[in-house]
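thread: overnight batch results

M.L. [08:02]
morning all. the overnight job finished for the chain we discussed friday. pasting input first so we're all looking at the same thing
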Amino acid sequence: MMDINKIKTILPHRYPFLLVDRVLDVEPQKRIVAIKNVSANELFFTGHFPEQPIMPGVLIAEALAQVGCIMMYTENDQVTGKIPLLMGLNNFKFRKPVVPGDQLVMEVELLKIRRGFGKIKGYAKVEGNIVAEGEITFGLSSGS
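M.L. [08:03]
and the structure it wrote out:
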């Protein structure tokens, strides 16, 4: 298990774009389960939508990508100093809206990785129901 302080040592993201609150389980370079507690105080709810707040789907996809990044960076010296870059979303589906008070449980598994590119499959659930799922392609940049 990882708390927010440990997550911040792995991810470069910070508020308002740090979208992972806790890691529940991780098998480095295989699979991970993490959570995002969705609060009414989230900055994006001021505009999406003020009268009926819904977490933007693109942020759910970003949260899944961040979870995948944590999985890849845990106990992996080969990625030290490299910046993960989102390269593509494939077969993404959004099934139900995510609203304030929900706890987003995110499960990600590694599908493949080679030569600085990889693909993960992610599922986001609320109360056991899938709210979003899809594949994410990423690249690892040297940062220069």
